[in-house]
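Module 6 notes. Inverse folding takes a fixed backbone as the condition and produces residue identities as the prediction. Think of it as a translation problem where the source language is geometry and the target language is the twenty amino acids. Below is one complete input and output pair. Work through it position by position during the lab.
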């Protein structure tokens, strides 16, 4: 049973990642199918709004800029997570995936949102501990049923 659960979890996580990857590609490439073009003047305006827009091909820059604007609401008061806590979560993920660009940006933005050095260090430590313990659980084929029993979660 333990091997079957590990097999299911492994392939389910790969399936979720694949679906998300295809949905993201579909979203970003939808402008190609809709024949939306960004001319030089509007592209330059997009670059003035955010230099990150230069990472995208011109034909999808407008849609990418709109997505980026919506995405960033996750770090505002509109989000169910307070901005500082959202930035601390972003730091933890950035450290776990070893993205130096992300860490640099998220630490700066977290400090702007009111996070101090101790909170930032704690977020990074949490990421490191989750990654370490995950490796122990996975490598020892601990099994999800056993883990759920230990933490008191009902397996249904």
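Target side of the pair, the amino acids:
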């Amino acid at each position: 049973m333990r091997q079957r659960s590990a097999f299911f979890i492994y392939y389910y996580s790969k399936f979720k990642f694949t679906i998300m990857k295809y949905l993201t590609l579909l979203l970003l490439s939808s402008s190609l199918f809709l024949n939306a073009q960004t001319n030089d003047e509007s592209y330059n305006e997009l670059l003035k709004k955010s230099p990150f827009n230069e990472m995208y091909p011109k034909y999808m820059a407008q849609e990418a800029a709109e997505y980026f604007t919506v995405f960033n609401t996750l770090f505002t008061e509109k989000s169910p997570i307070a901005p500082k806590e959202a930035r601390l979560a972003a730091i933890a993920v950035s450290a776990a995936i070893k993205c130096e660009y992300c860490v640099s940006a998220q630490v700066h933005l977290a400090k702007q949102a009111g996070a101090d050095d101790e909170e930032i260090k704690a977020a990074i430590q949490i990421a490191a501990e989750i990654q370490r313990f995950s490796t122990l659980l996975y490598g020892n084929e601990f099994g999800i049923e056993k883990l759920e029993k230990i933490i008191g979660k009902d397996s249904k």
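Reference fact for the lab report: The helical segments are 2-33, 40-49, 58-71, 83-96, 100-112, 117-139, 144-151.
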